[in-house]
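Work Package 4 report. The design task specified in the project plan requires that, given a folded chain encoded as structure tokens, an amino acid be chosen for each position. We show below one input record used in the internal validation round.
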């Protein structure tokens, strides 16, 4: 057991993302007795209590005493009211827990002001996890304010690595790029898997056979890429492409149709929408 795994962690909210994180924490060795959540959604909290053996309450303040970390796991639109509820607790707490927000598009500046805390003194992490967290394969981007201490950063890293990989960005504005890449990325990959599967059917495969092959090909290629970490992706691609072979013909079409430029335009659109939702950029044409 790592030194972090008996730390007390409370989740405000018990929805999709908080549940995925709690499942990851328990399965990676964090003690259920040190984990808790709160939410008005009784069915969701009961399921987590029964499944994981953690504690839960409908009262957001009940389990905050002696917490090492408080995870804000509610929707962005109710984050302000939740923060206002927590503010008196933080003002009177003997020791300052780290506050970790998973809310998309809400700045550390806003969260600090809603918590009535000095942004230079509040240990606050803003994160962008993604939905593969639900199967223990999340990819999270993390930003820490200056007040986050090294041990709090280590605890945060371990929390997010309980359900995938976690990387730190140095500038909060880089979370817009993280949102466009790993936050929205699962949907781009689903689109690609759908394209493979549909095309397989049009070439004569049964739908279930085609979908299985498409899913396993994407998962297998991603795994191969990850374990060949230092190797250039172009090098991995060349290994599949023998001169005059089938793959060369397929890749030639993808390149002539500018797949990489299309992906870049998709990410720029997602980044621009992230800026717009954060009040930092203009509305896109379709808004
Ligand atoms: N899902 C994703 O892909 C994803 C990815 C990255 C980040 N995020 C972020 O994760 C956060 C949660 O998203 P989600 O998909 O997990 O949402 P969700 O499933 O709707 O979960 C939100 C939970 O908060 C509860 N809640 C509502 N009001 C509350 C209050 N006053 N105090 C405590 N809990 C309250 C909800 O209960 P009720 O159901 O009764 O309202 C629900 O259990 C969001 O901020 C989102 O931006 C999500």
């Amino acid at each position: 057991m790592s030194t972090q795994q008996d730390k007390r962690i409370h989740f405000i909210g018990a929805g999709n993302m908080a549940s995925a994180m709690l499942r990851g924490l328990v399965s990676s060795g964090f003690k259920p007795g040190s984990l808790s959540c709160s939410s008005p959604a009784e069915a969701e909290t009961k399921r987590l209590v029964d499944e994981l053996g953690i504690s839960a309450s409908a009262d957001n303040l009940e389990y905050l005493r002696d917490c090492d970390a408080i995870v804000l796991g509610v929707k962005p639109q109710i984050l302000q009211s939740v923060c206002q509820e927590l503010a008196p607790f933080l003002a009177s707490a003997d020791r300052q827990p780290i506050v970790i927000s998973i809310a998309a598009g809400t700045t550390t500046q806003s969260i600090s002001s809603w918590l009535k805390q000095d942004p230079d003194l509040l240990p606050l992490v803003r994160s962008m996890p993604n939905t593969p967290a639900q199967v223990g394969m999340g990819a999270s981007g993390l930003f820490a304010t200056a007040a986050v201490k090294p041990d709090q950063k280590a605890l945060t890293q371990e929390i997010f690595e309980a359900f995938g990989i976690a990387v730190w960005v140095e500038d909060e504005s880089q979370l817009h790029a993280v949102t466009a890449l790993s936050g929205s990325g699962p949907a781009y990959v689903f689109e690609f898997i759908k394209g493979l599967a549909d095309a397989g059917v049009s070439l004569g495969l049964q739908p279930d056979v085609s979908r299985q092959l498409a899913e396993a090909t994407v998962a297998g290629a991603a795994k191969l890429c990850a374990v060949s970490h230092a190797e250039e992706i172009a090098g991995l691609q060349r290994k599949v492409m023998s001169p005059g072979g089938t793959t060369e013909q397929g890749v030639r079409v993808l390149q002539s149709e500018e797949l990489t430029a299309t992906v870049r335009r998709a990410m720029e659109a997602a980044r621009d929408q992230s800026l717009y939702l954060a009040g930092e950029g203009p509305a896109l044409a379709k808004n």
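The first strand starts at residue 9 and ends at 12. Validation will be extended to a larger panel in the next phase.
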